[in-house]
Amino acid sequence: MTQRLITHLRHVDLAVPDYGRQLDFYTGTWGLKAEHSDSGLTFLAAEGSPEQYVVRLRQARDKRIDLIAFGAASAADVDTLAARLAADGVRLVGEPGKLQTPGVGYGFRFFDNEGRTVEISADVAVRQHRPIEEGESIPVRLSHVVLNSADPEATRAFYEKHLGFALSDTLMHPHLGKMMWFMRVNTWHHSLAIARCPHPSLHHASFELRGLDEYMRGTGRVLRAGVEKIWGPGRHLAGNNTFSYFLDPSGNTMEYTTELERIDEDTWHPHLYDFTRPEVADQWGTANAMNEFVAKRSFNDPDQGLFQAPPV
User: Model confidence over 203-223: pLDDT tens digits?
Assistant: First the structure.
């Protein structure tokens, strides 16, 4: 594993054909705030997060992950990472420079091993944010992003080697082998996870709520809005976090969660969990059963943007 220069997850950017419906969902139902909007482009902030935005929506013909963005501590660290990646033969989208997105900052983009666009940035201005109040069932922050991968072992190795991610836990199936890897870049149990899938795509993006009451209120609000629930509410064993998974209008899976585990990196040892054990999938036993039909909903459509950098 290389020296870790990544500090945290910033945002996930999505291109969608049904931009208007998506914008209504994320602002009217999911609880994000639209800011810095332009024609066919909206930056969505979480009221409790210092990040300028946690989701970006872009109108496009094809559905794709535009990019996943991570933070670094300084411009010098950004330059160091860019030089390391280039020396290792990783394809850069561009050299480090001033960003043209809200909060500006200094950063660069590159393609990971399967062609997803990744952005690394530093010195982005902090957004004015506030504490989420008791009973307020809107996202505090973007918790983590899970990627579907056709070659998850290689994807795990890429993020470990080039970005300093560490393995927290692994899920396995007795007959299918290892199926999901939880990766951390700080003391949160995971900021990124990698799932085995027939094709690269977004598995889900997860949003942290204030606490259990707010998480349940949010889950109920989304259900009352008629949004399709895939799985939950329940509590995972790996990460010890709660989960309620829903489909957005484009068929991307979105999660409400809370109480994701914080770990001591000096003493942590990764677990290998058999997710056919009911308590691994859901410690509480309150969620609908995880089966092949539930799992396939998060396979998502094949990403149409591999090795194609977004235009903005």
Answer: 999 999 999 999 999 999 999
CA distance 259 to 292: 27
pTM of the model: 0.97
The pLDDT score that the predictor gives to residue 229 is 97
Q: Which DSSP helix (H) or strand (E) runs through 234? A: strand 229-235
Give the 3-state secondary structure of residue 215.
helix
C-alpha span between 5 and 100 (Å, rounded): 22
- Give all strands (DSSP E) within 49-116, no chain letters: 55-59, 64-72, 97-98, 106-111
Give the chain's domains with CATH numbers: 6-122 (3.10.180.10), 141-297 (3.10.180.10)
For the stretch 111-123, what's the b/e string if a residue is b when 16 or more beta carbons lie within 10 angstroms of its beta carbon?
A: bbbbebbbbbbbb
Burial of 55 (C-beta count, 10 Å sphere; 0-12/13-18/19+): buried
Model confidence pLDDT, tens digit, residues 33-49: 999 888 899 999 999 99
| Residue 70 one-letter amino acid | F
Cis bond upstream, residue 200 (ω within 30) = no
CB atoms within 10 A of CB 37: 12
Q: How many Å apart are CA 165 and CA 44, to the nearest integer? A: 26
